[in-house]
Design goal:
Blueprint: H1 24-38, H2 45-56, H3 63-73, H4 76-81, H5 84-88, H6 95-117, H7 125-136, E1 143-149, E2 155-163, H8 169-183, E3 187-193, H9 203-218, E4 222-230, E5 233-236
Helix pairs in contact: 1-2, 2-3, 2-6, 6-7, 8-9
Length: about 240
């Protein structure tokens, strides 16, 4: 037995350090997950975005980043519809986080577009409006698209033909009608968005619509409508009696 002046052969182990506390954001994230799995409807926009980002960046608190994105783009809808380059410019957004946001938007659009494609468009009008609003209402630049329909009013092609302001009206009419002939379209629906949020038609919108309608009619192609989409709703030029 060693005396008091003789060192022990096997020194006592140092006391174990206290268990490390889990980062505070993990408890918050677990609560978000529980609410999402229970219902999800009660989650605020920034909370939905926060949890989406957490799946891509699991070791970081993503609350501040979610708020930053919503503040930068002006709302959840504009975040989800932002292009990859714009998202990547925000501090804290790497490739994985950017891809997570983009895949959420792409998946939603495909779901809505699938509902439009399943039935004749004119008999499925609300589904069409939901799809167009999700895809275009928050887009930061003006985008013009043409929906090509067959004789049963089923969607055969959905094409974005132009971005930005329409300057060359005559060429624009010719491009729309030429593409309709190429696809053997029986009818068309024109759609564009107003980034200002106000879907009210301009004089140029009305004039280009009437020019396309007249040219298409002469070739046996019907123009069912021209829809203008904005964050504050939509306007149908047909319903307004403008075509």
């Amino acid at each position: 037995m060693a005396d008091a002046d003789t060192p022990a052969l096997f020194p006592a182990e140092p006391p174990a350090p206290p268990p490390a506390e889990a980062p505070s954001h993990l408890g918050h994230r677990a609560r978000l997950r529980a609410r999402l799995l229970a219902d999800g409807e009660g989650l605020l926009d920034h909370e939905l975005l926060e949890y989406l980002l957490a799946l891509a960046i699991p070791r970081r608190d993503t609350k501040a980043l979610a708020h930053r994105l919503i503040r930068e783009f002006g709302g959840l809808g504009r975040v989800l519809t932002a292009d990859a380059h714009a998202l990547a410019r925000v501090d804290g957004m790497g490739d994985t986080a950017t891809a997570a946001v983009r895949i959420a938007h792409v998946a939603a659009i495909r779901l809505l577009r699938g509902e439009v494609a399943e039935r004749p468009v004119l008999a499925n009008w609300q589904a069409l409006l939901d799809y167009l609003h999700a895809d275009m209402a928050h887009h930061p630049v003006e985008r013009f698209r043409v929906l090509h329909l067959n004789t049963r009013n089923m969607l055969i092609r959905d094409e974005v033909m132009n971005e930005g302001t329409i300057d060359e009206a005559a060429v624009y009419v010719r491009e729309v009608v030429a593409r309709a002939l190429q696809l053997h379209s029986a009818a068309l629906i024109l759609v564009h968005n107003h980034p200002s949020g106000d879907p009210s038609p301009s004089r140029a919108d009305i004039e280009i619509t009437r020019s396309i309608a007249t040219t298409a009619k002469g070739l046996g192609i019907a123009l069912h409508d021209h829809l203008i989409v904005g964050t504050r709703g939509h306007v149908s030029l047909r319903a307004q009696g403008l075509i």
